[in-house]
Amino acid sequence: MAKLNAKQRRFVEEYLIDLNATQAAIRAGYSVKRASEIGYQLLQKTTVSEAIAVEMARRSKRTEITQDMIVQQLAKIAFADLKEYVEWNEEGIQLKPSDGVDGTVLQSISEVNLPKGGTKTEIKMNDKLKALELLGRHLGMFKDNVNVNATVGVQIIDDIGSDGDAD
User: Fold this and answer.
1) Residue 40 contacts by C-beta under 8 Å, 6 or more apart in sequence?
2) DSSP strand pairing (119-125 vs 106-113)
3) Per-residue pLDDT for 52 more than 60?
4) H-helix or E-strand containing 68?
5) How far apart are the first and last CA of the chain?
6) Is the N end or the C end of the chain the one with fewer CB atoms within 10 Å?
7) Above 70 in pLDDT, residue 161?
8) In the chain, where does the domain assigned CATH 1.10.10.1400 lie?
């Protein structure tokens, strides 16, 4: 990050936290009123975008977390089937043995004591819709911003008083 000034370096560091250019600009000390514009402009600068890419690569190497790993985990959550974790039989619903269950797609498993005695097991899966949304965004299926580029010709005609009438 040698080619960046101090504020730009701070922007890069802050941007890596949440990938939000506006908030990164504010936290880096830029004007709150112009943070959105400044954040966008900073991301357009080659030196800043290259510094972000370098720092993201360093973080990925350091943490050993890759984009592929994230996408694979999202896919596991998005396409998880409850039948992989429970079985239905004449005794009711039973949890499958834990050694055969991928716990990474489950948010929680709990037993609740019932008021009239006995227990009830509750399984909460991770948010499948959110995982599908994130995968869809990764694949470019959803567009939040609609860009309209158009050329519009405008002609202003001022003919007030051209025929001598004041009305």
Assistant:
1) 21
2) antiparallel
3) yes
4) helix 67-78
5) 67
6) C
7) no
8) 6-65
Residues 6+ apart with CB under 8 A from 114: 120
Q: What is the mean pLDDT of the chain?
A: 84
CA gap 94, 119 in Å, rounded: 12
6-65 sits in which CATH class? mainly alpha
* Residue of 135 and 1 predicted with greater confidence: 135
Q: Are strands 106-113 and 86-89 parallel, antiparallel or unpaired?
A: unpaired
- Confidence at 158, pLDDT banded by 50, 70, 90: low
Amino acid sitting at position 140: G
Question: Phi/psi zone of residue 118: left (φ > 0), alpha (ψ -120 to 50 degrees), beta?
Answer: left
Task: Copy the structure tokens of residue 83.
Answer: 């039948």
pTM attached to this predicted model: 0.55
Q: From the CB of residue 73, how many other CB atoms can be counted at a distance below 10 Å?
A: 15
C-alpha 20/C-alpha 1 separation (Å) is 19
pLDDT value at residue 142: 75
